[in-house]
Automatic annotation (TrEMBL), chain B:
Keywords: Cell membrane, Membrane, Transmembrane, Transmembrane helix. It is a multi-pass membrane protein. InterPro entries: ABC_transp_permease, LivM-like. This is Branched-chain amino acid ABC transporter permease.
Length: 317, 323
């Protein structure tokens, strides 16, 4: 149904204050593919997303959507080309209802401007009707139709995240970037999200998914790309990646031991946060720590705190 | 409820002017024009998050556009229509570089623009220089001339109505949604396809157009323009009116303008009482703006209209709970 786009990232670099958050990353996602991007905190995942979504410009390298270069385009231009973003922190619009929030998502697909709105030209009425209908559908799809007329900031966190997803869907994207969509969600909400992502994949939408919950990722994704210290350290199917010694090393911060893949994955989830604290004291990985600090600037504390909480929960026997 | 508010306002604007004595009619005209300018300022501050301390420059540009065209024989209606257009064009040319500045920087930049404009106007002999532009004909459409203040009262009411209607329509449209979205999260708005910079420029231009249109009426009403008619204090007055009335509300500018103008009238009467020094009116004016701003920011941070709304809703809730 949806006509998923092809994404090609070639050798992109992005540094903050001389420290690379993303370095020479190359990545190619086929139309309709669901690609997961995993890695320890501060591995450069969010920065990579920002480079694709247009919140940041790469200092080197290229980003192409269906073969056309987009890395010099501003975020709103990229949105018009069909890239939608679900941010890590629930970035919703205050002072507007949930429905209006989702209607903003349709901005990328419509064109009525100030004049059409001010003079109430026919195009304004036509578009408003269509946008409203579509926004209501998207709200229903995200499971929050009942909240449509409530002010967005009054929604509970889980619903705010669903709202963000509904907004992204209202843009009828061809490439959807999901930055930790499951963080802070309860088990039921998480299941519902997984089902929706599965449906979107079946419809042929290309998706890029960053997630800390490795089990969640492994279940959904076609292929997995693992980032560490701003670079790609492994890529392949879930099983291939799980068995990769470099991946285990990146998560544990030590040489891989003889463990089963399942155990490694579980350990990886549990120690994702712990690793960060450990490496902060390790001299050899100073660059990585700085990169993480650089990347964390852009992330909201709330999101990070939730991650640590869920990681800690995973560590309990 | 909203519709009712508009109805009451419309009725007031239509019914009030003939009831006013001649000397108050002039105040009414200036009040209405100020309210029209403030609609733009409120839109700019409330929805685009930008502060302009130079809005009177667009009022002046509109006034001089209409005045100069009329003096050189252009039909007044054309002059009046050209006023908002030229003001908007000026805003786009200025705004493209200025809107890169944020917050206080933009405020100071627009303030500087106005000072530069005033000094240029004072030296421009073709615009009357410091002495001013004289002999602007009265406004007329197809042989029908607007002679008395009552006519101008209705003309300025029309301008205010247009400004209010356009502002309301823009806010409740796709473009307005984009603007309101950008007010909380620029990043998320841009990611949804909102060209944030372009939108802010458009609102700046729209607010300038309102000011320009009001300025055009002002030119025909007074028949005389001088740089001194557009002091920086006027720009500040618009900001105070917008803040006192309530940013991001449609009725706010009207309420704010009314409160300020009436207050200034009272103070002027007070300041010109026998025995008062001749600087008293000016000092009182400045003082009242400063005091009002401080009081408003401290006690009514959202302005009068939202505060009144809250009171009304509160009493409704109380009534409901009693029942």
């Amino acid at each position: 149904m949806t006509n998923g786009a092809e994404l090609t990232v070639t050798g992109v670099d992005r540094a903050f204050g001389g420290v690379y958050a993303v370095r020479d990353v190359t990545l190619s996602v086929a139309p309709g593919e669901l690609r997961a991007v995993i890695g320890p905190n501060g591995a450069g995942k969010s920065t990579l997303f920002a480079l694709i979504g247009g919140q940041l410009a790469p200092q080197a390298g290229e980003v192409r959507l269906d073969g056309a270069r987009i890395d010099r385009l501003s975020a709103h231009r990229r949105a018009r080309l069909g890239i939608s973003v679900v941010f890590q922190a629930a970035r919703i619009f205050h002072g507007m209802t949930a429905l209006e929030n989702v209607m903003v998502g349709a901005h990328a697909t419509n064109g009525a401007g100030f004049l059409a709105g001010a003079l109430r030209l026919p195009v304004h009425h036509r578009e408003e009707r269509l946008i409203r209908e579509r926004a209501l559908e998207c709200l229903a799809r995200a499971g929050i139709a009942d909240w449509a007329d409530r002010p967005a900031e009054e929604l509970p966190l889980g619903q705010q995240r669903a709202l963000q997803l509904a907004r992204a869907l209202c843009a009828q994207p061809r490439l959807l970037l999901l930055d930790e969509p499951a963080s802070g969600l309860r088990a039921g909400e998480r299941e519902r999200l997984a089902t929706l992502i599965g449906e979107l994949r079946a419809e042929g939408l290309t998706m890029l998914l960053v997630e800390h919950d490795v089990a969640f990722v492994m279940r959904l994704a076609d292929r997995v790309t693992v980032l560490d210290l701003g670079g790609v350290i492994a890529e392949g199917t879930a099983a291939e990646v799980r068995a990769d010694p470099r991946v285990i090393a990146a998560y544990l911060g030590a040489a891989p031991e003889e463990t089963g893949p399942e155990a490694a994955a579980a350990a990886a989830t549990a120690t994702a946060t712990a690793t960060e604290t450990q490496t902060a004291t390790g001299g050899e990985r100073d660059a990585g720590t700085a990169a993480r600090a650089a990347e964390d600037q852009g992330q909201q504390n709330a999101g990070v705190r939730e991650d640590s909480a869920s990681a800690r929960k995973g560590a309990e026997p | 409820m909203k519709r009712l508010g508009f109805g009451v306002l419309a009725l007031l604007l239509v019914a009030l002017p003939p009831l006013l004595p001649e000397r108050h009619l002039a105040t009414f005209v200036l009040l209405t024009l100020a309210a029209a300018v403030t609609v733009g300022v409120s839109l700019l501050m409330g929805y685009a998050g930008q502060v302009s301390l130079g809005q009177a420059s667009f009022y002046a540009i509109g006034a001089y556009t209409a005045g100069l065209l009329a003096v050189h024989g252009t039909p007044p209606l054309l002059g009046l229509l050209a006023a908002p257009v030229i003001a908007a064009v000026a805003a786009v040319l200025l705004g493209a570089p200025l809107l890169r500045l944020r917050g206080h920087h933009l405020a100071f930049a627009t303030l500087a623009v106005q000072l530069i404009l005033l000094s240029l106007l004072a030296q421009a002999d073709w615009a009357g220089g410091a002495i001013g532009l004289q002999g602007i004909p009265r406004f007329s459409v197809g042989g029908f001339e607007l002679r008395n203040d009552l006519g101008y009262a209705y003309l300025s009411c029309g301008v205010l109505a247009i400004a209010l209607l356009v502002a309301r329509n823009v806010v409740a449209s796709r473009a307005g949604r984009g603007l309101r979205a950008a007010a909380t999260s620029e990043v998320a708005a841009a990611a949804s396809g909102v060209a944030v910079g372009g939108y802010r420029l458009a609102v700046f231009a729209l607010s300038a157009a309102f000011a320009g249109l009001a300025g055009g009426v002002y030119a025909f009403y007074l028949g005389y323009l001088a740089p001194g008619s557009f002091p920086v204090l006027l720009s500040i007055e618009y900001v105070v009116m917008a803040v006192v009335g309530g940013l991001g509300t449609i009725a706010g500018p009207v309420v704010g303008a009314t409160v300020i103008v009436l207050l200034v009238q009272v103070l002027n009467t007070l300041g010109t009482q026998p025995g008062m020094p001749d600087y008293a009116p000016t000092v009182l004016n400045y003082a009242v703006y400063a005091l009002l701003l401080v009081v408003c920011v401290l006690f009514l941070p959202k302005g009068l209209v939202p505060a009144l709304d809250r009171v009304r809703r509160g009493s409704l809730d109380k009534a409901r709970s009693i029942r």
